[in-house]
Every structure is written in C-alpha cells, then in structure tokens.
Give the backbone structure.
Amino acid sequence: MTPYASFSYFALVALLVAPAAWLGWRGRPAGRWVLASALLMLVVHHAPSHNLVPGLGQARDLWVVLAFGAWQWFLARWLLAGGGKKAPAWRFRTALGLALLPLIAVKLAPVLAPGSRLGFLGISYVCFRALDVLFAVRDGLVTTLAPGAYTVLVTVDGRVQRMRALKAWR
C-alpha cells in the first residue's frame, strides 16, 4: 500500500478515523484509539527499507523514526528532570540544540554524503513539534510526559493545550 496513492490507503484512514469520531460524538475519550491509530500509520508510512548511506546496508525507515522519537522524548524528559520551568538556561539551550541535531544532519547529509537517504518523510514537521514540546516544558505548560501522550502530541494532535486531556496516560 502506497501512502496517499491508493484507495486502500484512504480506506484504512477512514477505518481509523471513524471510531475516533464516534467516540468523540459520544463524549468518550479516544486517546488510546488515537495512539493505536498513530502507531499503525507510522508502520504503514515507514515500513519500507532503503539504503540510508550507500555502502552501509539496508535500514527500515521505521527504525529511524522510532530512534528519532525516542531521542526527542528523552530530551523532553531530561528537561523535565532538570526542573522543567525552573531548569537552568543552559539545560534548555542544550536540549534545543540536541533536538535540532537530527534535522541538521538530514539537511546536511546530501552535501556531506551524496546519495544518502538519511531521514524520513516529515522529519521537519515532527522536529518542530518536538521543539514545541520543549518550549511548553520551559513555559510550565507540560509537567509530566508519558510516552503515549508524547507520541500523540508530536505525530497527531500537535496542540500542547491538549496535554490536560492526555494526562490520563500517566
């Protein structure tokens, strides 16, 4: 199934959206369904493998996406552990710099290693969503961060205000 290019892809999207909409209309939380749907769509989008860097062999995009997500979540947790809103400025700046490293590497890879396919579709968007979470931690809007809530926040929802609704996953 090719994302955005086949009827089966859009049928899958409709099958995933319909239960969430139904739960929303009934006033029931759809958080776990949204998380499961987001994870399934990550697999659909990033399951193919390709050469990240010529000569280093095949790698699945999914592993790159998961490593990226784990790295960004770790940075947000590290900032929270350092005091969150009261964290020293150096800690916040370090977290921002480290969060931008994967994006910088992806943008420089074609120049430094021609023919490389380091990265994944949507890395810029997801990186900026992850940066938004760091800013929200610094502003005191985010005080706890479960992996499921972070996944939904960065991949699907994108609004830090929804953290109140996602705190049930603590």
